[in-house]
């Protein structure tokens, strides 16, 4: 029931989330910033963030793959990469309390964007939708997203629909210059009749919603 339109090519994104021991968060970030190039030598990193609000002691990664064969080859290569395993993986494993991954595709009406400049904050909004996928709720959801874009206070980075993991999940990533700009923009959006109408139509398909404010790491391509 989760099938529906998606991007026409095989490209997908692996979303990885790590819950870390509070006492080890700073050290984890420092080690990633130092050694992440060992990992990006094997495949493309889209973004790497830490949670500031909505979650604590959490890191979020997005990795891009051409297809599943590409991911299989990369996973085999990094398992045999002694530098990567020895300098980062083995030391940080004791820092991690829990990890979670999903495979997601960009929805067909969205291309991966970039912020207009470096700096700023990212809002990661997770929507749990009713079963049926974009074929069911895609049009209404797109209208709600576009209504927010049209207010001009925020920049859309990407809209991802899960293929593996909790199905019928949509992750939407927004960029703002700072948290205060985001708060002011949201206040204006809540008073915009076009936004209110579009959201009201979209929530017919919504089960739940959760968001995080993310800060990009120094090594993140999106920052």
TrEMBL record:
GO terms for cellular component: mitochondrion. GO terms for biological process: mitophagy. InterPro entries: Dimeric_a/b-barrel, NIPSNAP, NipSnap_domain. Residues 13-111, 122-221 form the NIPSNAP domain. Belongs to the NipSnap family. This is NPS3A protein. It comes from Alectura lathami.
